[in-house]
Amino acid sequence: MPFSDHNPPIFTQWQNQLDRFCKREKLPGVILSLHQEKQEPLVWAGASGVLSPEQPYFISSVAKLHLMALLVKLKVRGKVELDDAMVHILPEKEYSELSTFGEQDHTPEITLKHLLSHLSGLPDYMEYPFQGGKNLREELLAGNDQSWTFKELIKAVRKLKPLFRPGESKKAHYADTNYQLLGKVIERVTGKSLGLALEEFQNQPLGLSETYVYTDLYDRTPAPFYHAGRKLHLPRAMTSFGPAGGIVSTARDSMRFLKALFHGQLFPLSELEAIQKWIPMGPSLSYGLGIVRYEKTRYGFTGGKLPEIIGHTGISGAFAFYVPKLHLILTGTVSQSDDPMLPYKLAHKFIQTL
What are the DSSP calls for 33-48, one per residue? Predict the structure, then answer.
């Protein structure tokens, strides 16, 4: 069902294209909401397979956009500086020796900006075997649900080796560890739980009534996602992810959030330049502050270079994209963790129709 009242022919064309994509990629379901700013804006939402456009889902690492936005808002209000050392906010004794080389502890050098941009050098706790012989990521993708405390996470990070001294890399090293720490920073600065802080500073002002931090093991509201054809039921893990990805939302709420982000409703537009200072991360990908840029080198069917896409994706298949050249926002989920590039493939399919 489209959000708008009228139904131009292109809406039917898009729904057919979404159905074909879902079938060709053998997806259980897919959701896509699209908003293009024109003199007469195009607004559409569709779904295929077992999902509906209104279905809540885990946004996983798209949550990093929400944390970034909240931290920038706190910066604008004079509550933090992004160049502040993490240990100036969090108790230094509790967070010592996370970044140790030889006998020297470089943890005091880690700034909020290092955490936001994945330049802290800290290892990813997802690579640690909390239970059994496999690391946490492998266990979860195998369907072995488990939870962990923040203290256990910190202990795991200390056992894993840091990759580089804080800020001393020309390439971002993606680690959920960074955003777990940022979640604690937000709680310390605001004096509220992460859920309450997001509710007060973002959800309520923007009317995001379907967005929340997942804390209830028995909450079956969000749609499951899949890996290797298997439905992943991971409530314990999702309650543990918290700031690194344990957030539920809908395509509609994600659309409102992203529009607010790029229209100055969350913080002044002047702040956008700082968050979009890109550092290489992987093939076609670079990272800013809590935000990803995707630039494909190949060309589209029309012979023109495919435009850059900025935003974020998550392991659940969730995505929230802005295409500046087309003034286009795309949000939704492909509900799978097999192919991390699948959300970009879906976005390109629709970009080429505009």
Answer: EEEE-SSS-EEEEEEE
How far apart are the C-alpha atoms of 293 and 286, rounded to whole Å? 5
| Rounded Cα distance, 20 and 4, in Å | 23
Is 28 within a domain? yes
Over the stretch 154-186, which tens digit does the pLDDT of each residue have?
999 999 999 999 999 999 999 999 999 999 999
User: What pLDDT score does 41 carry?
Assistant: 87
Q: Give the Cα separation of 81 and 113 in Å (integer).
A: 9
What CATH number is attached to the domain comprising 103? Answer: 3.40.710.10
Residues of the chain with pLDDT under 70: 1-7, 297-304
Which range marks the domain in which residue 175 is found?
64-71+79-209
Cα separation of 119 and 99, whole Å?
Answer: 12
> What pLDDT is recorded for position 4?
45
Number of domains in the chain: 2
